[in-house]
Amino acid sequence: MLIPEVEAFLQCQTPQGWIECALDHPEELLLDHANCEKKAAGTALSLMFRYAEREELQQYLSRLAREELRHFEQVTALMKKRGMRYRQLSPSHYARRLQQHIAAQEPDKLIDTLIVLAFIEARSCERFYRLAPHLDEELGRFYTSLLKSESRHFEGYLRMAELYAKKPIAERVAFFAEIERQAILTEDDTEFRFHSGVPKPQVDPKPQTSQAAR
């Protein structure tokens, strides 16, 4: 079950068109999911080094990085079982669309970063929930099992933002909620990714007609 807090935090549901595209691209779905888990662990570790003086944040990120790497191992194990080979994929534009609005100066930079990460985790949770009923039993069960941890990550990042903010964060949360909504509903993405909008279909260029054929 998708927790009400995640549903209330996000300003839109994943479009049905994205779900249909995900079902048509099972290998890309798992590949990008694995890459997202690895990037999430890397982001947590990077923040640990950048904000070493923040004790509560250090402890939270350490636990989170371990859990994200465990998820990476689980996804790649599923891929191997299904005859899929792990490789890098080009990232979606989703995270960049959010990150480009993060404040440049501290302490606002940290607060915005934590809010953006909360949105990424919340959207991941929502997408697992929307996808699970349409997947085979093994993968559906696995995605359902991730709901609790992803919602916990969302709540944790938001809690850290509230802890370190010097003022209420509701205004910044609302700002990024609208940016995130636009990123999910965009029709400008050309490739399917775990956090992409609904990819627009590729149009094959019309063949050139030679003068001799006219």
Automatic annotation (TrEMBL):
Gene Ontology molecular function: tRNA 2-(methylsulfanyl)-N(6)-isopentenyladenosine(37) hydroxylase activity
Region described as Disordered: spans on this chain: 195-214
UniProt record, GO biological process: tRNA modification
Pfam families: MiaE
Superkingdom assignment: Bacteria
Protein name per Swiss-Prot or TrEMBL: tRNA-(Ms[2]io[6]A)-hydroxylase
